[in-house]
Amino acid sequence: EVQLLESGGGLVPPGGSLRLSCAVSGFTFSNYAMNWVRQAPGKGLEWVSAISDSGRRTYDADYVKGRFTISRDNSKNTLYLQMNSLRAEDTALYYCAKFIKGGVYLGNGIDVWGQGTMVTVSS
Amino acid sequence: QSVLTQPPSVSAAPGQKVTISCSGSSSNIGNNYVSWYLHLPGTAPKLLVYDNNKRPSGIPDRFSGSKSDTSATLGITGLQTGDEADYYCGTFDSSLNAVVFGGGTKVTVL
User: Fold this and answer.
1) How far are the Cα atoms of A4, A29, A77 from residue A22, in angstroms, in the given order?
2) Stretch A53-76: mean pLDDT, rounded?
3) Rounded to the nearest 5 degrees, what angle is found at the Cα of A74, between the Cα atoms of A71 and A80?
4) A44/B91 CB distance under 8 A
5) What count of other Cβ atoms lies within 10 Å of the Cβ of residue B47?
6) How far apart are CA B104 and CA B110, in angstroms?
7) Are B62 and B51 in contact (CB under 8 A)?
8) Phi, psi values for residue B9, rounded to 5°
9) Is residue A80 within 8 Å of residue A19, measured between CB atoms?
10) Do B101 and A110 touch (CB under 8 A)?
11) Mind listing the pLDDT tens digit for each residue in A4-45?
């Protein structure tokens, strides 16, 4: 069974840092590009970052550039999101998500999603 | 403000059909594949359609996708109470070099 299990969320003050992890099982992790997608309370889905299957190429939404870093460890089947300089508007449920196809085309559908980990930025 | 525009809500009676539109531009829908997702807040989103009109295994043919120029449409036939959810379109925007989603459409079964 394909599974994505996020962890690392929590309450952090503005300006603080947090590292999210996503443990993957049930498919060959190193064959697929991966994403982080978030949903703020009462808002819609918002893409955050993506990373190629090898980890050599990364892509970020403008609102997280310079603050968030996506990375992966294919030997550990784990995806990460390092979040620095957190702001109140970063408060959201963060989903780890897999593209349906191999390759790094960002127009591919996203077919597997985790249950999400909640990040709350507040003093 | 989302790059892709969807109606906030649509509704229909059980057994009827609804369509959800997704309007974009040449930098996104016009030159890229479109996907559609069903989402109940707080749960994992579900992929309904990818590559404009393909369904993943396990998705019934009540759900269909189409694309024309810079717009895409999701159709749901034989509406069921279990279809009540938020629906999102998504694609790649080559100007932003980013994945973009529509603002979401809430489907209500009357």
Assistant:
1) 6, 11, 8
2) 96
3) 30
4) no
5) 22
6) 19
7) no
8) -155, 150
9) yes
10) no
11) 999 999 999 999 999 999 999 999 999 999 999 999 999 999
